[in-house]
Amino acid sequence: MAFQDAVRDLRELDFSELSLENIGSWPIAVKMIAWTLVFIVLIVLGYFYNISDLREQLGQVESKELTLKKEFEDKALKAANLDALRKQMVEMEVSFGALVSQLPSDTEVPGLLEDVTNKGVESGLEIKSIKLQPEQAKEFYVELPINIEVTGTYHDFGTFVSGIAGLPRIVTLHDFKIASDPKTPGVLSMSISASTYRYKGA
Questions:
Q1: Between vectors from CA 201 to CA 98 and to CA 194, what angle results, nearest 5°?
Q2: pLDDT score of 16
Q3: Nearest 5 degrees, angle CA 192-CA 197-CA 199?
């Protein structure tokens, strides 16, 4: 009965008579519809002003969660391989120490020059000159260039290069220049650039 009465009141209602000034005299059905619309509007506004912000924050938190999970997986993998990494570090330190031991110190350079001279003499070469060049500092080491000029036969050159390669210190040879001596048939002159290296650290 109440529902039918409300429907009848709505049909008989003159909407031109409704105003906010006489809202208290509106029929019950109109008041219910008005409050329902107000409630729906409040819900929609609440969604856009509150829930949408919360959804955006939720999206950011979920994205951060994925990043943290990835970091956790990476750190867990490293932690699982920690013993293997420590063992590898020890092996690298040993290898590094072995390489550093092959680099001459400042006090060993004269001895190295003497070794180069002896290898030349043992190979049957005549040493024309051995000149130290200015040091060239690199990131982790210092390069010590040496210019060498010798004369001898082609096979003597091969013996000399092999002897240099057999030294306990690291010495590289490059920029070979071999020329024949017109005054002495069968004798060749060779200029060669050698480089040794000194560790830059303590």
A1: 65
A2: 53
A3: 175
Tokens of 168: 């306990």
pLDDT value of residue 113:
83
In single-letter form, the type of residue at position 186 comes to G
- Closest by CA to 34, choosing from 47, 48, 18, 16, is 18
Which amino acid type is present at position 108?
E
Say yes or no: domain 103-199 is CATH 3.40.50.300.
no
The arithmetic mean of pLDDT across residues 116-142, rounded, is: 85
For the chain, give the number of residues: 202
pLDDT one-digit tens code per residue, 42-56:
887 777 777 767 778
- pTM for the full predicted model: 0.48
What is the 3-state secondary structure of the chain? CHHHHHHHHHHHCCHHHCCHHHHHHCCHHHHHHHHHHHHHHHHHHHHHHHHHHHHHHHHHHHHHHHHHHHHHHHHHHHHHCHHHHHHHHHHHHHHHHHHHHCCCCHHHHHHHHHHHHHHHHHCCCEEEEEEECCCEECCCEEEEEEEEEEEECHHHHHHHHHHHHCCCCCEEEEEEEEEECCCCCCCEEEEEEEEEEEECCC
Q: Report the distance separating Cα 57 and Cα 51, nearest Å.
A: 10
The Cα–Cα gap between 62 and 84 comes to 34
CATH 3.30.70.60 residue ranges for the chain? 103-199
